[in-house]
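Appendix C: a fully annotated inverse folding record. The material below is reproduced so that readers can follow the format used throughout the book. The structure is listed first as tokens, followed by the designed sequence.
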């Protein structure tokens, strides 16, 4: 852990340092901490923005897409000059401009069952900002095997959800045992999405990630938070670990090898 903050850091993080819940020691934990952000789009943008501003020392960014002009209505770390550029490179440039204390590590690839363990290695927390079920299940399953916490978020039109999946708590499959069939859930390119919605949900995810790194506060473990922007309402629904869960249950998997993540991402009984 960093033993001290220099004068610039004491100034930059002064609003953290004066808080009893953070203080110099907590800020040192953030600077020594690391987070892997899966997706640099609508949710990933505010997550990257606020983790970098908070001084999380190492942020990994995973995305294989390029910036499109239609992204700019909600993906606030990218600008018009970035159109056509890889999102990971645009995101890294943003981080570099925002906070010199933060190292942005770019992974211009699509996370899948073949590379997930290599991508997760060395990070303290995973922030799942993926826009598809396949990636969410791969992240959940591999992170559970690796003993890493995952902060999950998802959005749809005017609604969003978030939860934190701790290594000793229920996992994503306890909530959703299998993915819906491909094509049955439309994406934002089909239905649209309110531009500010991912900002709200992504900030909640960033908050959870920072609390994990600080080991502070009550987190969304075993609680699924729903947000409705049209009603401006929040609802929290508790959920429990499923003892028969094929991933985190008593006979949970020890490897993701052999799991078919196409279709329903089903895990057969051990």
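Designed amino acids, in order:
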């Amino acid at each position: 852990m960093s033993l001290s903050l220099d004068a610039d850091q004491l100034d930059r993080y002064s609003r953290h340092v004066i808080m009893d819940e953070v203080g110099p020691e907590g800020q040192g934990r953030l600077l020594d901490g690391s987070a892997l952000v899966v997706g640099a789009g609508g949710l990933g943008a505010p997550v990257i923005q606020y983790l970098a501003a908070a001084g999380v020392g190492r942020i990994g960014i995973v995305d294989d897409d390029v910036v499109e002009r239609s992204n700019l209505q909600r993906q606030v770390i990218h600008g018009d000059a970035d159109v056509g550029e890889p999102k990971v490179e645009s995101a890294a440039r943003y981080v570099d401009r925002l906070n010199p204390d933060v190292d942005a590590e770019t992974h211009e690839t699509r996370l899948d069952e073949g590379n997930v363990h290599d991508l997760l290695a060395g990070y303290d927390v995973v922030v799942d900002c993926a826009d598809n079920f396949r990636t969410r299940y791969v992240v959940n399953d591999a992170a559970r095997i690796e003993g890493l916490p995952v902060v999950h978020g998802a959005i749809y039109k005017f609604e969003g959800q978030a939860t934190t999946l701790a290594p000793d708590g229920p996992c994503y499959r306890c909530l959703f045992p299998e993915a819906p069939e491909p094509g049955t859930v439309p994406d934002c390119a089909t239905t649209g999405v309110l531009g500010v919605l991912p900002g709200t949900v992504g900030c909640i995810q960033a908050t959870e990630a920072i609390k994990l790194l600080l080991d502070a506060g009550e987190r969304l473990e075993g609680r699924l938070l729903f947000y409705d922007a049209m009603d401006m309402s929040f609802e929290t629904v508790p959920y429990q670990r499923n003892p028969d869960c094929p991933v985190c249950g008593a006979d949970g998997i020890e490897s993701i090898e052999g799991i078919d993540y196409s279709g329903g991402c089903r895990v057969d009984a051990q």
